[in-house]
Write a structure and sequence with these properties.
Elements (H helix, E strand, L loop, with lengths): L12 H20 L2 H5 L9 E7 L8 E2 L2 E5 L4 E6 L6 E4 L1 H4 L2 E8 L2 E3 L5 E4 L4 E8 L3 E6 L11 E7 L6
Parallel strand pairs: 1-4, 3-11
Antiparallel strand pairs: 1-2, 4-9, 5-8, 6-7, 6-9, 10-11
Length: 166
């Protein structure tokens, strides 16, 4: 009967050092990604900057108030939309929507997640759109109800580059 003997394995010194380097890096990355470390870069936990926009007014004027909005890239924003008029309106900004990451839209008891191109607000409706701009630029805003853009229900949405820390 033959016996099976385990012979000690000897590795070259460089392989031993490589092992400890990789193990050390794994430890650093594992500890560096703890929830406390991630909170500093997790944009979804930033307090959102609130911006209020009215789609029309109580006299049924066809306008956005204000009609020029500015957002900073890399900051979390909450767009508070309201429609105080008796007409339905759309907040349509397709190119803007392609330049942001939408976290959610809330309206009534409904929360919508995913890509959003436009929002329809029926009379006296309200909605909240939480997003993080990611691409600087100037984008067109309009109401896509026939005749509303032509009557002046337009605006601009500007995304500025992130401000450098001072």
């Amino acid at each position: 009967m033959s016996r099976f003997y385990l012979q000690p394995l000897f590795y070259p010194r460089w392989l031993h050092q490589l092992f400890w380097l990789i193990l050390g890096l794994l430890l650093v990355f594992t500890l560096g990604s703890t929830p406390l470390a991630m909170a500093a870069t997790d944009l979804t936990h930033q307090t959102p900057i609130e911006v209020k926009v009215s789609l029309g007014d109580s006299t049924n004027a066809l306008r956005f108030v204000p009609n020029q909005l500015q957002f900073e890239a890399g900051k979390r924003h909450k767009l508070l939309l309201s429609n105080p008029s008796t007409l339905k309106h759309y907040f349509t900004a397709k190119d803007f929507a392609g330049s942001i990451w939408s976290q959610k839209v809330e309206a009534g008891m409904v929360e919508v997640k995913g890509a959003i191109n436009d929002l329809e607000l029926k009379p006296n409706a309200m909605a909240e759109w939480v997003f993080i701009p990611i691409k600087s630029g100037i984008y067109e805003l309009h109401c896509s109800v026939p005749g509303h853009s032509e009557a002046g229900m337009t605006g601009t949405l500007t995304i500025t580059a992130p401000k450098s820390p001072t």
